[in-house]
């Protein structure tokens, strides 16, 4: 099928359709050495109407894609930027990024964010041209679960306003604008986000308020993921060691953290036994709708 009004030799961006599925599944099998997550979420993304799943079409087939989705009442996330490796060099990524950016400006509100590799200089230039501000840099860190003291208390929903105050004032959390990782999606913590996590024992107070963790469990990798770490600098190594003990107590194998790429954070995390899992960091960008 050719999208109406476009010649076969023109790159045309449009909302994704079920007929795009075989093309998307075909070219994503070449990405990340065959470990791309897009095939496992594509059908769910197609069914989700709270945002836009877009493709770039060329010569009758989908050769690129991207998605923008609403995470909270006024926070959005862009993800899933992919280009068929056989069609590189045609600025397809730029076309689809500009397309979903225009859609968000027309239909969205509040703030939209995205994350990209520190190596993708062309994406950095595109973000700057489209009015996105770089607001942080993160590095994937990990540690093995270790038995030890895990002095945590689950916070209930009634405590969320107080927890939010503590999160906003914590020096460590401030290194990424206080953003919370919800699984490769970063949001500003708010009651809409924290209340469901609190019901799953995911909002934790450490040692009577010396620190806080927002956590969730990654089932496939048997990992405890630290969505947000909030404490003073001097308390960070001990809090991270306690997170390893918490993972062990929950029967998980390891701890994972998309940590602020800040020299003090990385130094303190190393003291706690955390190691870098990436060769390159990730840049966080955001755009605020006036």
Largest sheet: 13 strands, mixed
Report how far the terminal alpha carbons are from each other: 38 Å
Overall average pLDDT: 93
The CATH topology annotation of the largest domain reads as Aminopeptidase
Please tally the β strands and state the result: 15
Radius of gyration, rounded?
A: 20 Å
Query: Shape, please?
Result: globular
Kindly state the percentage of residues in helix: 25-40%
Strand content: 25-35%
The run of helices and strands is: EHHEEEHEHEEHEEHEEEHEHEE
Number of helices: 8
Overall domain count: 2
CATH architecture of the largest domain: 3-Layer(aba) Sandwich
Low-confidence stretches: 1-7
Task: Please give the CATH class of the largest domain.
Answer: Alpha Beta
Description:
The chain has 290 residues and is α+β, with helices and mostly antiparallel strands. It has 2 domains: 12-109, Gcn5-related N-acetyltransferase (GNAT) (Aminopeptidase, 3-Layer(aba) Sandwich); 139-282, Aminopeptidase (3-Layer(aba) Sandwich). 29% of the residues lie in helices and 33% in strands. The protein has 8 helices and 15 strands. The chain has helices at residues 21-28, 38-47, 92-107, 121-129, 160-169, 191-199, 236-249, 263-271, and strands at residues 12-15, 51-58, 61-72, 75-83, 111-117, 133-144, 152-154, 180-181, 186-187, 203-206, 211-218, 223-231, 254-260, 275-276, 282-288. Strands 1, 2, 3, 4, 5, 6, 7, 10, 11, 12, 13, 14 and 15 form a 13-stranded mixed sheet that branches. Strands 8-9 form a two-stranded antiparallel ribbon. Helix 1 (21-28) packs antiparallel against helix 2. The longest helix has 16 residues, at 92-107. The protein is globular, with a radius of gyration of 20 Å. The two termini are 38 Å apart. The model is unreliable at 1-7 (pLDDT under 50).
